[in-house]
Amino acid sequence: MERYDIAIIGTGPAGLSAAITAKIRNKKIILIGSSELSTRIQKAHTIQNYLGLPAVSGEDMKKAFCAHLDAMDIKITEGRANAVYAMGSYFSIQSGEQIYEADSVILATGIVTGKPYPGENELLGRGVSYCATCDAPLYKNKTAAVIASSPQEEAEADFLAEIAARVLYFPLYKDDVHVSGKVQVINEIPEAVTGSGKVEQLKTKNGSYAVDGVFILRESVAPGQLVPGVQVEDNNVQVNRLMETNIPGCFACGDIVGKPYQYIKAAGEGNIAALSAVNYLDRKKRGNENA
Amino acid sequence: MVKKISNNDFSEAKNSGFAVVDFSATWCGPCRMLAPVMDDVSEELNGKVDFFNVDVDENSELAAEFGVQSIPALIVLKNGKKVDETVGFQPKPGIMKFLNRNM
């Protein structure tokens, strides 16, 4: 498999800035995210404090960022990273069905909104799951609930319905729901997952449903789930001034590491993260040569 | 070395003083990622801990017996009794910490 020097995850100001610096330092990079960059940028009305772009609209800022990427011949690999695995000497990044490998990783996926449901953390792995395609086969002849934050998750529910006896689908979005006839759509707001030792019920505002498992499918994965083993506090990845996480070779920058949520701060941190990653790669290379 | 369990035959793991059993499946991405980490850990703890791997599709009775609902799941057995478990991929330091707290 192709091995990149640095995988950069996220296409907001932090990720883009990291990509630009890494490219200048002649590293082989993969930038994973959306070619639309960040929806938060596009929606921003005016940004007054970004150096060199006075009173810029979100839309114009996006254009300026895209032009910068083009000028440096940086391509975005379209995708949403589901998981980053620290394999020891390298990282394995799962993005949908794709797997990428890199010697170092820069996390720049932005803030995560939404708190866990009561019972979610306690019953994780005991019926609570975040990946239908991963755990579906364990629900043969069983009942599973799917809490879906976007229509993208409908395919996961359909897949699950092929295996499970019964699938209850709780859409948290306003769009029309298109799922197979085997999936039962319930328009109620989930409130808690309950059970002793394992999942037994999903409670909603209106009542409760007896289930064997609950799949909670959110648009943005909490950092601790995105990178198993990374140190997280209040949903922020913990870093030092060099943007190093507790996992060697894994760096984080931008909103994912915490406030203030400012574009110029994110871009500055992206720059630091990229330089730290370059430094890490150099040290690693020297270590290998000496070994 | 990680020993593969087949035909639901769990006797060797049950007779071990300290066994770690990795419940996994071929279709599970995180399980495939965890396998090389477990190989590495088993080399490091060679002689101190016995390592086993259970494919939940081939050994569904065992998966049911231990209440495995999400994989990969690591279950620690002392003299055949389950004393601890953890679910999901973890890098090597995390696995070592989990095992050390049971040593």
Can you describe this structure?
The complex is a heterodimer of chains A (291) and B (103). By secondary structure, chain A is an alpha/beta fold. Chain A has helices spanning 13-24, 39-43, 58-71, 132-135, 154-161, 223-226, 263-290; strands at 3-9, 29-33, 46-47, 56-57, 76-78, 81-86, 91-95, 98-107, 128-129, 143-148, 166-171, 183-185, 190-194, 201-204, 208-210, 213-217, 232-233, 236-237, 250-252. In chain A, the strands form five sheets. In chain A, strands 1, 2, 5, 6, 7, 8 and 19 form a seven-stranded mixed sheet that branches. A five-stranded parallel sheet of chain A has the order 9-16-10-11-12. Chain A has a three-stranded antiparallel sheet with strand order 13-14-15, with no helix packed on it. In chain A, a hairpin with a 3-residue loop joins strand 14 and strand 15. The two termini of chain A are 24 Å apart. In chain B, strands 1-3-2-4-5 form a five-stranded mixed sheet. In chain B, a hairpin with a 2-residue loop joins strand 4 and strand 5 (81-87). Chain B is an alpha/beta fold and 103 residues long. Helices cover 35% and strands 28% of the residues of chain B. The model of chain B has no long low-confidence stretch (mean pLDDT 92). Chain B starts with a strand and ends with a helix.
Summarize the structure.
The complex is a heterodimer of chains A (291) and B (103). Chain A is of the alpha/beta class. Helices cover 26% and strands 28% of the residues of chain A.
- Helical amount of chain B: 25-40%
End-to-end separation of chain B in angstroms reads 19 Å
- Structural class per helix/strand content of chain B? alpha/beta
Uncertain runs of chain A = none
Mean pLDDT of chain A: 92
Helix content of chain A: 25-40%
Please report the total strand number of chain A as a whole number: 19
The biggest beta sheet of chain A reads: 7 strands, mixed
| Percent strand of chain B | 25-35%
Secondary structural class of chain A: alpha/beta
Q: Largest chain interface and its two residue counts?
A: A-B, 26 and 26 residues
Radius of gyration of chain B: 12 Å
Number of strands of chain B: 5
Which parts of chain B are unreliable, with pLDDT below 50 for 5 consecutive residues or more?
none
- Give, in order, the helices and strands of chain B: EHEHEHEEH
Strand order of the largest sheet of chain B: 1-3-2-4-5
Overall shape of chain B: globular
Identify the quaternary structure here: heterodimer
Beta-strand residue fraction of chain A: 25-35%
